[in-house]
Design brief:
Rossmann fold; 7-stranded mixed β-sheet; 8-stranded mixed β-sheet; alpha/beta; 26 helices; Aminopeptidase; 5 domains
Length: 892
């Protein structure tokens, strides 16, 4: 018989699956959080017994050496609604417990009492904050509005957790006990604290991987032609500063270093294990690593998700087991990781050539391409600070590395070679923050974005537009990636678009001019020094250009007409460039690419320093790189704009409607009347219409709306047809309405819409869709068959800021039609662009508030000097996608 515990369920419901989470503690180690269950009684009892007397006193206000059967039962039998319990565990051990209990007798808003306790040896790791965040999320789901807590006044640790979490705490003192109350509504301050904690823990987690105190190579062999041999050789030859432990079941030594049969047999601690054994042996190796307490894994082994569903399942099992024991995983199918800091000197990669020390961080998702990429970087003398090849990116991702590089003092520029984006909303959020201080250059090789029929090459437009929105410099190839990196790493950002071209070859100089103009830079005629130019001519020309107030950047071309010594020319270009240190200088120097030794300036240890002048194989590449960097520099100067929230949003009513109309498992389009009602909650008013099913109802609707009206056939095939077969416009009389209804009902077989005629204007379209790489994306463009064929649509990730809403309207190539002037010729009155921007803001707010909205279309929208009239709206709703990025911290 269970103890007498009123309100405690005898048979608790299954725990909510979305409450299970892997989370990073403040020290960067993984812990697992989950709902408590009746099966935890024995573990919980052991956890309580391990607590120190002091910890038990602070939690329970007294000694309380053992949990009573009644308390143990009540703690483990919860309903996950009014009574919730969560545990944090590592392996089989509980590290912390938190719970809340609804206060049924308390008047006013729904409140619950909250409490938690952390094992002594794990205090200071931020586990209390993690529990509080996830209890907060559970409470919000169950309509709990505030938490209360009774805390001993001397329990500074718990009070600090509440205060530092960003809650607005109200406290009252009753002797030695503090009564704390705080609202759990996710305020901006609370979200900011959450993001700050997440950033710090993820950065620490990556730092643990990149600066291990010891490394084990599992599968180490003497042969460098094999994976385990190659990575061991690189670790030993790279002068790694910690101990390296080869693991080989049949050898006592590998490459002259003592070897061990398994990781368990290594007498010292192991921070990082590099795994180079066949996929079939991973299971036993993982068991050894978990038993040893290894902190991180680099899995070079292939044969996982890239092989199909079975491989994917094995990959998820690997990551789940590793995380459950506090380990992070790079890979599988990774090339490895490297840290060029002399205090670490880690080369745990398969790359035969590793670039030297520099200030560029490089994340590469592709293992097979990684070695070639590093080889080219080395050939260009492009120095790196750290390098991670994540392979299948089963755990450690580009998001993690961005968090690390954000505050890494040794990294000034970030390079990304991406195939997928993992958590797209989080990627965009982090990238926007990082790019404000550190340039991010990215190649996206994936071609998996959603496509809309009639819009060619949508994925390229999405990547280009959305990268630009986040301040990322998007390039199309590894060559262009390094072109931009060389400029960003060693030269200042251009202050403006004005370019001077100096050279001794008229043909090459004009190539640079034409390429620069094509990229939107401002450049006049090149300064032609002629084929007989001397070093002094270059010195004078470059020096004059870099101090000229109307020059923002300089491209210098030196192509000797005959073989000759070039050192004096290089020295002249360097000396001239130093006359104006704030003006970037690029060269095409003797058709070299990368960083010629003659144009390099070096610091201690021979490391390249800023002021070194990169060379590009041809002047067109130099111009393209400069233009991309210039656009980034312009983005960085724009003020940070808040997320737009227009007035008059009926969010509560909209949520009620969506809940009423939702199908539990299937996406579906709302009816036209439902869509109009939902859009209306956000101030998006569809031009008034009536849905009719006979001619006399059509006439009555027209008289109610007021002539003139339009009649429109309904049904998928009649929407947005360029021939307007399903539409009759400017109907002024009842007989015209009857005739129009009869014609349209006959051809469509569906009800007909009678709609008030809107003010004529320029047709526009707004569409929101789900993109598998970027999440919810809004597209805008002008209407028309030719526009559709040209694909003149622009895209932005949601939610939009105020500035982005206005930029969206101005971005299409056809946008000048909205201004009423094209190439200096008046074509009509300018439309109310502010009304279009506000419409974009309202659509953004709706889709951000209602994640069940999977797709939305407003088209056509007639933009006129009087405003923006929405003639038709469609909405598709479905089950809510993963929204973990806006809830409590978790690894996904």
């Amino acid at each position: 018989m269970p103890p007498d515990t009123p309100g405690t369920p005898l048979n608790p419901p299954p725990p909510p699956q979305h409450w299970f989470a892997d989370v990073l503690a403040s020290d960067g180690r993984v812990v697992r959080l989950r709902p408590i269950t009746p099966d935890d009684a024995e573990q919980l009892e052991r956890f309580h017994e391990r607590l120190s007397d002091r910890t038990r006193y602070l939690r329970y206000f007294g000694p309380y050496p053992r949990m009573t059967p009644k308390d143990l039962y009540r703690t483990t039998h919860v309903d996950y609604v009014d009574r919730v319990g969560l545990v944090i565990e590592l392996g089989e051990d509980i590290l912390a417990v938190g719970r809340y209990e609804f206060l049924a007798d308390r008047p006013g808003p729904r409140a619950a009492e909250v409490a938690f306790v952390v094992a002594d040896e794990h205090q200071g790791r931020g586990l209390g904050s993690i529990l509080l965040e996830h209890l907060n999320g559970a409470a919000a789901e169950n309509d709990i509005e505030s938490f209360v807590a009774e805390v001993l006044a001397e329990n500074n640790g718990m009070v600090t957790v509440f205060r530092d979490a960003g809650y607005q705490v109200q406290r009252s003192r009753d002797g030695s006990v503090l009564h704390l109350e705080f609202a759990i509504d996710p305020t901006e301050a609370l979200q900011s604290v959450r993001d700050s904690r997440e950033r710090a823990s993820e950065a620490r987690s990556v730092g643990n991987l990149l600066a291990p105190r010891s490394v084990a190579v599992i599968g180490a062999t003497p042969a460098t032609s094999r994976v385990g041999g190659a990575v061991l050789a690189n670790l030993l030859s790279g002068a790694y500063q910690g101990p390296v432990f080869p693991v080989n079941r049949t050898r006592t030594a590998v490459r002259g270093v003592r070897a061990y049969p398994t990781v368990r047999d290594i007498p010292d601690e192991v921070d990082l294990a590099v795994i180079a054994v066949p996929a079939a042996e991973i299971g036993s190796v993982l068991d050894d690593c978990m038993a040893k307490g290894v902190k991180g894994l680099v899995v070079l082994t292939a044969g996982f998700s890239e092989t199909g569903p079975r491989g994917y399942a094995a990959e998820r099992d690997l990551v789940n087991a590793a995380r459950a024991h506090g380990m992070r995983v790079v890979g599988p199918s990774a090339l490895g990781i490297a840290n060029t800091d002399p205090a670490v000197a880690l080369n745990a990669t398969l790359a035969p050539v590793l670039p030297g020390r520099g200030r560029i961080g490089f994340f590469c998702q592709s293992g097979p391409l990684g070695a070639a990429i590093l080889g080219e970087a080395a050939a260009r003398q492009l120095g790196l600070s750290t390098f991670v090849s994540a392979g299948n990116r089963a755990d450690v991702s580009g998001n993690d590395l961005l968090q690390y590089w954000d505050n890494d003092p040794d990294t000034d520029v970030v390079l990304l070679y991406l195939e997928t984006f993992g958590n797209p909303r989080k990627f965009s959020r982090i990238a926007r923050r990082v790019a404000r201080t550190k340039p991010i250059v990215a190649v996206n090789s994936g071609r998996n974005s959603a496509r809309v029929e009639g819009e060619p090459d949508l994925d390229r437009s999405l990547v280009r537009n959305l990268f630009a929105q986040a301040g990322i410099i998007q390039v199309d190839s590894i060559t262009e990636l390094f072109d931009c990196a060389m400029l960003l790493a060693y030269q200042p950002l251009p202050a403006g678009p004005r370019l001077a071209v100096i050279g001794n070859s008229a043909a090459l100089s004009w190539l640079a001019v034409d390429a620069a103009r094509g990229e939107g830079l401002e450049v006049g005629e090149p300064i032609d020094l002629g084929p007989q130019a001397s070093p002094s001519d270059y010195l004078a020309a470059v020096a004059a250009a870099v101090i000229d107030p109307i020059v923002d950047a300089v491209i210098v071309i030196y192509s000797p007409p005959v073989p000759m010594a070039v050192a004096s020319f290089a020295e002249a270009i360097l000396s001239g460039a130093r006359s104006g240190p704030e003006t970037p200088v690029l060269t095409t120097f003797v058709a070299d690419q990368g960083m010629p030794n003659l144009l390099a300036t070096r610091g201690p240890g021979g490391i390249l320093e800023r002021g070194s002048i990169p060379s590009f194989g041809d002047p067109e590449r130099a111009a393209r790189a400069l233009a991309r960097v210039r656009r980034y520099a312009d983005w960085r100067t724009r003020p940070i704009s808040p997320i737009s929230r227009p007035e008059g949003l009926g969010t509560a009513r909209a949520r009620e409607l969506v809940a009423e109309w939702m199908s539990p498992e299937v996406d579906h389009w709302l009816s036209d009347l439902q869509a109009a009602e939902l859009l209306g909650c956000y101030g998006i008013r569809i031009e008034e219409f009536r849905e009719v099913k006979d001619a006399e109802s059509a006439v009555a609707a027209a008289e109610e709306l007021g002539f003139p009206v339009a009649a429109k056939a309904t049904g998928e095939m009649w929407r947005n047809r360029p021939d307007l077969t399903g539409v009759r416009l400017d109907l002024w009389r009842p007989d015209a309405v009857r005739r129009a209804y009869t014609d349209l009902a006959e051809i469509s077989g569906n009800p007909v819409h009678i709609q008030r005629m809107a003010t004529k204007g320029v047709g526009c379209t707004f569409r929101v869709q789900d993109d598998p790489s970027f999440g919810s994306v809004i597209g805008f463009g002008l209407s028309g068959t030719i526009i559709d064929l040209l694909g003149d649509r622009v895209y932005r990730a949601l939610p939009l800021t105020e500035a982005e809403s206005a930029e969206l309207i101005d971005a299409p190539r056809a946008a000048p039609l909205l201004s009423g002037t094209v190439r200096g010729r008046d074509i009509g009155k300018p439309v109310d662009r502010g009304a279009l921007a506000e419409l974009a803001q309202r659509i953004s707010a709706l889709c951000d508030d209602l994640p069940e909205v999977r797709e939305l279309q407003c088209e056509p929208v007639l933009a006129s000097p009087e405003g923006a009239a929405v003639l038709y709206g469609r909405v598709r709703i479905g089950p809510e996608p993963n929204r973990f990025d806006i809830g409590p911290r978790r690894m996904v």
